[in-house]
Amino acid sequence: MKDIYRRNGFVSGVVILTLATCLSFSPGLARAQKTFRLRVGIIPITEMLTIYVAADKGYFAQEGLEVEMIPMPGGAVILPALLGGSIDIAYSNLVSVILANAEGNPLKIIMHNKSEDSTKAPNAPGGYKGGSAIMVRANSDIRSAKDLEGRNFAVNTLYSINWLFAQEWMRMGGTDPAKAKWSEVPFPNMEAVLESGKVDAITAADPTLTVLKTTGRGKILDYYFSKVKPNIMVASFIAAEKWIKEQPELMQKFVRAMSRAIEYANTHENEWPTILAKHLKIDLALLEKMEGGHRFEAKVNMEHLEWYVNLMLRRGLLKKTIDPRTLVYTAGRDLK
What we know:
Blueprint: H1 2-8, H2 27-32, E1 36-42, H3 49-56, H4 59-62, E2 65-71, H5 75-84, E3 89-93, H6 94-102, E4 107-116, E5 119-120, E6 128-129, E7 132-137, E8 152-155, H7 161-172, E9 181-184, H8 190-196, E10 201-205, H9 208-214, E11 218-222, H10 224-228, E12 233-240, H11 241-246, H12 248-267, H13 272-280, H14 284-287, E13 294-296, H15 302-314
Parallel strand pairs: 1-2, 1-3, 8-9, 8-10
Antiparallel strand pairs: 3-12, 4-12, 4-13, 5-6, 7-10, 7-11
Helix pairs in contact: 3-12, 3-13
């Protein structure tokens, strides 16, 4: 089964709704209630900030949850683990969710998390800044999409969201993405394979993006997500429909805690580096130079989901259309 998911490009590295308003708890109540264990598959990159906040600020504990965060390289591992029952909730990008449902696997987005924060910056590559970039070595002669023809280009998973956006970026640059040599490299290994010369370009997410840029070992070719679709939704927390029906209370507890964490993260951006340094084991001084690029939100944007479906149809990732509404758990509110 795992091979099926890899072949269809289920990846990492994502959407969508708030199921309830934030609740307040007294410490005494939190101690008295029963504790429930949740296993959550995550990707060790900076957009996991919100789940780190939920743990550190006690939001999970106040819901009676003991959350085990299980680091995984991407959707090629996360989705089979979710379907196989070894994790309860997964962090996944929208392309993976759509592909999974198209293959008959009923996975539902229970809340959104990360959208690209595309800040206009006239002096930045492509005119935007963001949290995802195509990077090359500092001394590379690659200057444009055209220069990537015949070069080795690494994404975390083939037929994934990063692969799809990188290919669209190349098309926008006037070149055929099939002329690049594509390879899979997990996010934590991107820095090493680029520096070693095994690949010529990578799709970098933070903290790799910031580390390579601030140390002068890499340079940004373009902020490709922002170039292709500014402010697009990227990744969400998902669960199997069967599990949701069996454990609706656990799901709601998780969503309430995470909704509080998103609100906190958006109003305490100055704390991001310290929280991320603790959990990602990255030098605080480097993370303090991080430019951002993440917009955290719990709501789903159905127009964005429809955009993904249409793009995937055009590029042959889907054989037939899929109703975006079927991707979202709809007992809650805040679809827009």
